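User: Predict the complex.
Assistant: Input components as received:
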Amino acid sequence: MQKIDINYGPKIDYRFCKGCGDCYENCPMDVFGWDEEKQMPVVAYPGECSICCFCETLCPEVAIDVLIPLHQMLDFGIAPNKLSKESKFLETDK
Ligand code: SF4
Ligand code: SF4
């Protein structure tokens, strides 16, 4: 089966995540799973993300960045080349 990379949706920066579980418990689309061993959330179903950004707003540690698909950015008139290249999430994304 061909693997499809989803390059949008929530990205968790584990340098800041404290494992409170708020994102896991409150995402309306159940995008997050829970790693029982590490007691941390994981992005289990990024393709289900509706880009509502609730998790990003909710996270008390500001550890989540929701990446918006290119076509949605264009819909809102946001030019991708105007976005900051300093984002801490760009390095930890892979
Ligand atoms: S809400 Fe933030 S701090 Fe809490 S588990 Fe999710 S990413 Fe980690
Ligand atoms: S942006 Fe909304 S739908 Fe997507 S993971 Fe966060 S809370 Fe869930």
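The chain has one domain: 9-82.
Let me know if you want any component modeled separately.
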